[in-house]
Amino acid sequence: MSGRRRLVALIVLGVVLLALTERYAGNVTGGRAATDDLTSSGTWSIALGWSIPILMAGLGGMFSERSGVVNIGLEGLLILGTWFGAYGTLLTGSPWLGMLFAMVAGGLGALIMAVATVTFGVDHIVAGTAILVMAPGVGRYLSGLIFPGYGGSITQSPTLRGTSTFSLPILAGGNLFGWESPDLLGSIEDSDVLLLSEAAGILRGFVFQMSWFTLIGLLAIPLSAWVLWRTRFGLRLRSAGENPDAADSLGIDVYRYKYFGVIISGVLAGYGGGFLAVQLSGLYKEGQTQGKGFIGLATMIFGNWRPGGTASGALLFGFTETLRLRDPAAPHALLLFVVLVLALVALRALIQRRFRVAAGLGVGCGLVAWYSLAVDKVPNQLPQITPFIAVIVVLLFATRRLRMPAADGQIWIKQ
Amino acid sequence: MMTKSRMLALAPPVASLIVAFVVSSVVLAISGANPFTAFANIIEFGFRPNTLVETINWATPLYLSAIAVAIGFRMNLFNIGVEGQYIIAAFMAAQVGHVVSLPPVLHVGAIIITAMVTGGIWAGLAGLLKVTRNINEVISTIMLNSIAVGGVVSYLLGVWDVEDEGLDTALGDIPPSGQFPSLNWASDALVGETRSNLWGFVVVAVVVGVVYHLLINRTTIGYDLRATGSNPTAAEASGVDPRRTIVVAMILSGMVAGLVGLPELLGSSHSYSLRFTQGLGFGGIAVALLGRNHAAGIAVSALLFGWLGRASGVLEVRGDAPREIISIITGVIMLSVVVAYAVAERYKRAEEARAAAALTASNGAANGGGPAEAGAAS
């Protein structure tokens, strides 16, 4: 099966499983996991928004690591983005300029990292840790100086206004030149036809009440794929991360492309941070990134250093986070969904006669099933740490499928 | 020659401190404070008896954290997970200390052992993942940090929360038998009476430092560690099992990391709550880098960071700047010290190359001159 058809098949399968889970989760758990938020357009529209910061951090990490520089400072760059996004919006009154501030701040933070790692050949992890240590301090320091003057405090800014949202006409009832168009997907979602209404709900989430910043964030997925794999710039950038010596011998300025990779990662992470503060939260608040930079790093590994995979991971983790916030019973239902997925993967391994893998997955599936049926309420923390557990599990079982850039993390000095 | 190489060894840390000084002056100036009065305030405040005691109190966990990091560094392992290891360890130790009742010394012993075992297990996991599935320890410890702090500790804190304590989510208190005696008699004798207690755990930190030094430089494990760190292939050829060494190093690092939260837990808070100090793991990385992974160097650098951290509090009091300037300074020192070492390394190499070139050149001249002289003599 070709990659694209495989992806479509996976998505369809996922929607079917999600719909089934939503229908019957309440029944098998005696109502404890009853929810209708798994496929509602409201959930998916919010999940899309919450996945943007993760996505931008993940894509940022991808650019940096494709050029051969490991960037664990993403969380710090995200924090810089949140602060400067909020500050720029306050200062100029425009969320658009605020986002520009956020991107510039992220880019400058990454520039520090690039100077250290590329020019001076410092260990990438050390440089990233320095960014991690500095960024929260910068945030608190600047907040203390600036935000009280705007009516905020040393830990948060006053509230901000992001951009307006829009819905697609006809499909989601958007406004077309003043004409109130029908809400096609909305009416299918309300129809309560098995599978059809669920699919419509999820689909509607992607076209309903979307902000401009979300749209731009989503456009970064195809754009970064195009830049990295379809342009000369991208080829050179990747060559710096795969085999810098060979690239150098062909006359490519490896240092320059590594600088580009790291700085682009900062600009993207800055955008993610700005989005989090300006659009999603409507204010800067200390600690609001909550490890989204690290989750972005996880999705990048999860997504095999590719935009499509990174985006899927970001959406998945944005979804789990949204569920946790919307409905306490929803994570419980999601656990049952995980049981279904594990059972199917185990079955597939069985058919492929990979018995040890099948046995391992079967045991895991049984344990999760037992837990989700026995427990009263799934801890609130579980969805939060899912990304981190997921990345370890993926690294445990799918290492052969993952391939990081060959010279990723290596200090390269021109001879 | 000796003095020159010693100067070269001292230059990077000194240079990085100068850079940090300049950067913080700029930051202070931007925020509208006069850097010179600010530094004068820091120095005046920093040498008050109370600040000196607090300096030692805060240098102690930083020292332990840096030793934990340094154990990894000695064999090219980056244990970025000290942060998560110490928090989960302090948390478990606090609960054990609250629940068990034992006579005084044994009680403290049980708490310390719990912390070391928890830290060792959490770090050992990363070691196991590395040797069995070749998962990079940086990635696994980052993920384990989040799992520890955002998952395990956060969940169990809700479960074990002592409801009657009111506002703050916290574990129950450790009774006096499980508290570490303070060393106020010593601080009283040295700097006079102070408001702050000198936490006794500094003694444990000193012991850990000595053991670290001996372990690395005088034992087989230490040799294996250093050998694997500097040349894994050669180490393996000489009979060192790299996989075993990796797991051992991670476990040792995690055990020391487990101690990081204890000075505060046993010396002052006597309970784990949401206010428990975080960030010591990352701070330890900075301290280890400045201290060059050397037991004594780390001590000096821990004291320096401890002092900066405490003395900078005065900036906020006097209205010069928010005290968070310290994390900016920490980051700057971290970056500039590694940059300075990289530059020094390049300079040294260039110097050696030049010396070698000069040597061969002069040898060549001598050899070339030989026959001519001989010819002239004959």
What does this structure look like?
The complex is a heterodimer of chains A (415) and B (378). By secondary structure, chain A is mostly helical. Chain A has 16 helices and four strands. Chain A has helices spanning 3-28, 41-66, 74-92, 95-119, 124-146, 184-191, 196-205, 212-230, 232-242, 244-249, 254-281, 292-302, 307-326, 330-351, 355-374, 381-397; strands at residues 165-166, 175-176, 179-180, 210-211. Chain A has a two-stranded antiparallel ribbon. In chain A, strands 2-3 form a two-stranded antiparallel sheet. Chain A is globular and about 65 Å long. With 378 residues, chain B is mostly helical. In chain B, α2 (35-46) crosses α14, α5 packs across α6 and α9 (220-230) crosses α11. Mean pLDDT of chain B is 88; it is low at 369-378. The interface between A and B is large, with 44 and 44 residues.
Number of strands of chain B: 0
Main β-sheet description of chain A: 2 strands, antiparallel
- Judging from the principal axes of the Cα atoms, what is the shape of chain A? globular
Briefly note the structural class of the backbone of chain A: mainly alpha
Percent of residues of chain B in helical segments?
over 70%
Percent of residues of chain B in beta strands?
A: under 5%
Radius of gyration of chain B: 25 Å
If strands are numbered along the chain, what order do they take across the biggest sheet of chain A? 1-4
Q: Largest beta sheet of chain B, briefly?
A: none
Give the topology, please.
The complex is a heterodimer of chains A (415) and B (378).
Chain A: H1 3-28, H2 41-66, H3 74-92, H4 95-119, H5 124-146, E1 165-166, E2 175-176, E3 179-180, H6 184-191, H7 196-205, E4 210-211, H8 212-230, H9 232-242, H10 244-249, H11 254-281, H12 292-302, H13 307-326, H14 330-351, H15 355-374, H16 381-397
Antiparallel strand pairs in A: 1-4, 2-3
Chain B: H1 2-30, H2 35-46, H3 49-73, H4 82-99, H5 104-133, H6 137-160, H7 184-191, H8 202-218, H9 220-230, H10 232-237, H11 242-259, H12 262-269, H13 280-290, H14 295-311, H15 313-317, H16 325-377
